[in-house]
Design brief:
By secondary structure, the protein is an alpha/beta fold. The chain is built from eight helices and eight strands; from the N terminus they run H-E-H-E-E-H-E-H-E-H-E-H-E-E-H-H. It has a five-stranded mixed β-sheet with strand order 5-4-6-3-7, with helices on both faces. Strands 1-8-2 form a three-stranded antiparallel β-sheet.
Amino acid sequence: HYAGQYSCAQSDVVAGLSDVYMGFFFITSARQVVSDMTTPLFPNSGLVIVGKKPWTWEEFAAQGKTACVPSGTALATFVIDNLKPTGVAVELYSGTSEMLAKVESGVCDAFVEDLALAEQWVSLNCDKLLAVGEPLSHGISELAFGVNTDKTHITEALNYWINYLRDCNDADASSKCNQGWPDGSAYNWQSLYEKYRGSGCPTPDYREG
């Protein structure tokens, strides 16, 4: 089902051309059939709208706004099946440059992404003056790595470190998870995300006029 829909990702892993797709992929039942999915990295973080203002899903749908979503993905399928009927118009794109062009030209009012990726993207593109809206309270939101089904030892190794970093106490200075970090701090998965996602964007002024 996913063959040809991803470049060097799901289809290559299923075909045995790659061992792992090292990206944030939503865990779905269809993907679990064709490849191993690791323990979720950021569970229940939710889908958000990224646009010129911090939209809520309710107001975005009520105003019939258009959301850019990446074509051929589980995210697109979910938005089309579950959010389009609520009033959200959908525009597909096939790459970041196309998505930005559509948002900046007004073809799309915003784009849809998982909260973790959305916050990272906005922090790395402060000049775009985009804001992250409120997360959707339901739907696909668990992200993981995908592994070729013949490489179960890789899945086990990734799961070990994912679980270790999820459970490690970053508030404990004596914790093993601080070993090797040059700043002498302890980190778990969440605090690492907060450390490296960046927070250098000035707070936009969304007041009209």
